């Protein structure tokens, strides 16, 4: 018996239902595929097309289930060592900053190191000149100020001391100068404990001339101090020199050297003549360069003699428009001293000088 359908359709046939379901699924899949091409993240968590990290979001409620079954973008990307982790940064990714870079992104020049060489003395001997001259060398980086670590600031520790140093490359030498180290009893042991391989430079000068220069400097700061003669002697008539006065005691070089030789061999100590530093600066600095184990680059062409100051100065360099001369505190005119006082002090220093010559194997001709 045949039926006629009037006004409403009967239940859909199974084949037609399957076709409708397939069409709906296909449409949804295409929508998902197009969305994925636009928004899918690569292994670094960045959108290949949009250039920014994104995570997948469903196009609608109907597609939520399919999106949940897919792996969402991970903004942090895979960690190193995980499967799929990149071996090199992706194109367009920012390069990592070097750990040793400054704020501008360029590498910092070197590392702060403890000094391998020290100018340890002596005051008013010519230490500042040696420091300024040797700083011209490209293989030397020197601290410009006197840190007084091994005499006054030892309690601050080596890390504090290191922090003061200039940055150096592996091929460069770090150097500092503090002339009072030479007469500080504890300095040799403290420097030895830092490094037994430290190279030591001592700039010496005729002890009588050195004492007068020392007094002249003090007088410029304290004009009310006693006379040079009054400070030099406990009893001038008897020729008793006051060795407690620092200006006199510093010049007893042989006495102070004994403390250093308990810790350092003579081969690790280089003595610069303050007098020859004035008459032959290139020669003295050549020997300093040899001692430090660097090439002789500081030569005669670097110096000219300043008649006003009475000592050599550095000629202008490519980085400086003017010559470099020591400051106004250097080259002061010495106070006039009674020649008899000078003779008495020469006699006092004579045995110390002779012992010093014999110990270091060099005659400085101060007599």
TrEMBL record:
Listed InterPro entries: NST/OST, P-loop_NTPase, Sulfotransferase_dom
Sequence segments annotated as region (Disordered): 61-111
State where it is primarily located.
Golgi
> Where 3'-phosphoadenylyl sulfate is bound, by residue?
124-128, 205, 213, 330-334
**Where are stretches of biased composition, namely Low complexity?**
84-101
A Pfam family per the record: Sulfotransfer_1
- Residue numbers annotated as active site: 124
Location in the cell: Golgi apparatus membrane
Keywords attached to this entry: Disulfide bond, Glycoprotein, Golgi apparatus, Membrane, Signal-anchor, Transferase, Transmembrane, Transmembrane helix
Q: Which Gene3D superfamilies match?
A: P-loop containing nucleotide triphosphate hydrolases
Family as reported in the entry's similarity comment? Belongs to the sulfotransferase 1 family.
Q: What is this protein called?
A: Sulfotransferase
